Sequence to fold (268 residues):
Amino acid sequence: MAERALSMPDLTARKKAGEKLVVLTCYDALFARMLDAAGIDMLLVGDSVHQLLGGNANTLGATLDQMIYHAAAVRRGTTNALIVVDLPFLSYQASIEDAIRNSGRVLAETGCHAVKLEGGGAMVPTVQALVDRGIPVVGHLGLTPQSINQLGGYRVQGRTNAIADALHEDAVDLEGAGASAIVLELVPQELGRSISSALRIPTIGIGAGPGCDGQVLVLHDMLGLNADFTPKFLKRYADLAGTVSSAVREYAAEVRAGTYPDASHSFD
Ligand code: KIV
Fold:
């Protein structure tokens, strides 16, 4: 089997070489093929799938079986990119044993390369236990969507010194426990920069400023498919909602007018 362009242990060397990591979410084989061919370094099978594709208000209801279904599809569409899979809510928080069994299922049943879990503090021994058992882990700090009820909303975290210091400490502890990288979501850019410079492992920012070692965006948001979602950090690189809308309107008009299908789209 051909060597992959990048492996989880290479991430620290990439940071040392000053090369930014390019990460996008991905939930299916079709997009995985396109993102992989475009040279995206890492695909994140995020539990945001439960919101974006499932139409739910938050990520809390995503299940392990759903994540495995999407992750296996992404794996089938990918040749080079690293694939990290979100552990859904309650698949790892209740016990270290749950975390090991569920992460093991993700890697064994999908062929993906690492799991991502949210939180510092209480999660540090869990990260250590997973890494000790050969399961690469990406951490996630700042706005942690699985704690949305405790955080009270999707807002920037770490604006006070106390919370900024706690996030800093969590990041250092996750690195100490063996995490391969840390997603930093919605933190002030100065905090993103200072956490990144305190770590050997890369940070992957989303709404965490340019000082992070890589960036991740939700694919459907950056493609402009999720038209109502307009946070400050999001840059839209396309307007696919507009493209889809005009395509389906044109199709509907042609079907109603009887101009589709024409002879060139019909069999003799
Ligand atoms: O679930 C997800 O898509 C994520 C990203 C927002 C980082 O965790």
About this structure: Residues 25, 44, 46-48, 86, 183, 185, 206, 216, 218 surround 3-methyl-2-oxobutanoic acid (CB under 6 Å). The mean pLDDT is 97. Residues 12 and 201 are 5 Å apart (CA to CA). The longest helix spans residues 240-257.
